[in-house]
Amino acid sequence: MKTKKIITVLILCFGLIITAQAQLVVRVRPHSPVLKGRPLAPSPRHIWMDGSWAVRGGVYMWTDGYWSSPRNGHVWINGHWKHQRGGWVWVPGHWRRRW
Predict the structure, then answer these.
(1) Distance (Å, rounded) from C-alpha 32 to C-alpha 26?
(2) How many other CB atoms sit within 10 Å of the CB of residue 90?
(3) C-alpha to C-alpha distances, 22 to 1, 73, 90, nearest whole angstrom
(4) Nearest alpha-carbon partner for 68 in 50, 53, 56
(5) Residue 17: phi, psi to the nearest 5?
(6) What's the pLDDT tens digit per position in 11-36?
(7) How far apart are CA 1 and CA 10, in angstroms?
(8) What is the pTM of this model?
(9) Which of 79, 78, 74, 49 minimizes the C-alpha distance to 64?
């Protein structure tokens, strides 16, 4: 019984850490670094994924863009900064189903 409680507490703490990192709020949103040239597309079908921000070690770190194969029935939504109470949060790019 005691082991179950410890495991439950650990799972809840781990979930809070993940949630906290996914919703890192900053008062001043970072500026994108100088953009590099895009490499040639591997094929005409590939889609360019813009560089984006990712939370690493409790801070936002820039990741460069890359080419990706499209997903059937989906469109790519670029990442963007969203203003909310207390500051800004990065919303990562994602695939959205076409209507």
Answers:
(1) 15
(2) 21
(3) 32, 27, 9
(4) 50
(5) -65, -45
(6) 443 333 344 445 788 888 887 776 77
(7) 14
(8) 0.64
(9) 49
